[in-house]
């Protein structure tokens, strides 16, 4: 793993596991981070306060983190983690994705993606963070998946996956749907009301995984306030989807009042 990716991973792991490193040293200029529950935090004083608060909360929850995957290009690094919190003696495992924009050997901004539903019992609207881009480098199968999702075409989505492929919801590590029938049940449910419209803002493709930051403004028949999210699509050796891992905080149609 190259130096910047290693530094980001180590800082996050040390923070969660109670041995904080120097997050501020990652940044080329003033620290800048955006999270689902805090929005944008900018500047050294605000950033230091944020890190101190997170350190305290994570310690209270007896948190532990496991690195899941790294997707890195010259422009951006995306690290996926599984964060385990202990609440009332019960472990809660939350998938988290951290996207870091690069400036040479440093970072200019960090964006964190996860669902707040396991923490709060409800979702939170997260406004767009990045302006959509039209010239993204992403594999054709990711574009085909996005188009099938927008049409609400479950069978078209299934043809893009390997037979043993899986999709993981943002709600937790246990919300994983594997194999043809597992995927059919999942996509039939989420597309029952119609398609999901995602507008891509960034794409980080290393040849194996493509991490896409997006905004979602429609799910089924209902228009939504535009909301930020991320998905990581893992490709098999055959160029099909081995996995689709979703990181957002968007309420499904049945949960919205």
TrEMBL record:
<dbReference type="Pfam" id="PF12680">
    <property type="entry name" value="SnoaL_2"/>
</dbReference>
<dbReference type="InterPro" id="IPR037401">
    <property type="entry name" value="SnoaL-like"/>
</dbReference>
<dbReference type="InterPro" id="IPR032710">
    <property type="entry name" value="NTF2-like_dom_sf"/>
</dbReference>
<protein>
    <recommendedName>
        <fullName>SnoaL-like domain-containing protein</fullName>
    </recommendedName>
</protein>
<feature type="domain" description="SnoaL-like">
    <location>
        <begin position="142"/>
        <end position="242"/>
    </location>
</feature>
């Amino acid at each position: 793993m190259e130096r910047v990716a290693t530094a980001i991973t180590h800082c996050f792991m040390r923070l969660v596991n109670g041995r904080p490193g120097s997050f501020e040293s990652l940044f080329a200029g003033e620290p800048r981070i955006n999270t689902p529950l805090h929005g944008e935090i900018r500047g050294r004083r605000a950033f230091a306060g944020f890190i101190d608060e997170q350190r305290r909360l994570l310690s209270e929850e007896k948190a532990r983190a496991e690195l899941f995957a790294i997707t890195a290009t010259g422009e951006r690094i995306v690290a996926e983690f599984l964060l385990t919190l202990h609440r009332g003696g019960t472990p809660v495992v939350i998938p988290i994705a951290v996207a870091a924009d690069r400036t040479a050997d440093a970072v200019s901004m960090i964006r964190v993606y996860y669902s707040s539903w396991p923490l709060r019992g409800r979702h939170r609207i997260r406004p767009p963070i990045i302006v959509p881009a039209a010239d993204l480098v992403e594999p054709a199968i990711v574009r085909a998946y996005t188009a099938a999702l927008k049409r609400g075409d479950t069978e078209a989505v299934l043809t893009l996956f390997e037979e043993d492929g899986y999709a993981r919801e943002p709600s937790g590590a246990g919300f994983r749907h594997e194999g043809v029938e597992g995927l059919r049940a999942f996509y039939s449910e989420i597309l029952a009301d119609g398609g999901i419209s995602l507008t891509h803002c960034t794409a980080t493709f290393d040849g194996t995984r493509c991490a896409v930051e997006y905004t979602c403004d429609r799910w089924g028949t209902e228009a939504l306030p535009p909301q930020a999210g991320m998905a990581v699509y893992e490709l098999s050796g055959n160029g099909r989807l081995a996995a689709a891992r979703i990181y957002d905080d968007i309420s499904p149609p049945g949960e919205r009042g």
